[in-house]
Design goal:
This protein is mainly alpha-helical. Helices cover 25% and strands 0% of the residues.
Length: 114
């Protein structure tokens, strides 16, 4: 080989995590910014009163989700859903009979045998 010829081969790659392959005059690599999730904030959804105090109270509970991270929303939504479902189920229930209880049935003559 000729010692006077310039070596055109690339230098060996530096091992990972080492700065030996970095140009000393180049700025240091900047690490990627750390991900910080946005703070909870209200969605701005207007809650319109329904006229039923129990339902309105449950719907007001939805505002609690405005101040929770997303993984806390499910508990609030399930609680409100359960309450609204119970309120609707109560509307379908038959009302209790009003007034005094009915007198017992009178026995028939053939029910008394000797």
């Amino acid at each position: 080989m000729n010692d006077s010829a310039a070596d055109t081969r690339d230098p060996p790659a530096a091992p990972a995590g080492s700065d030996s392959g970095r140009d000393p005059g180049a700025p240091a690599p900047v690490p990627p910014p750390a991900f910080e999730p946005a703070a909870p904030r209200p969605l701005g959804v207007e809650r319109v009163p329904t006229g039923d105090p129990a339902a309105d109270e449950l719907l007001t509970r939805l505002a609690d989700a405005d101040h929770l991270p997303a993984d806390g929303h499910q508990e609030v939504y399930e609680d409100v859903h359960r309450g609204l479902r119970d309120a609707l189920t109560a509307l379908d229930a038959r009302p209790a009979p009003q007034g005094p209880p009915a007198p017992p049935a009178t026995p028939h003559a053939y029910d008394h045998r000797s």
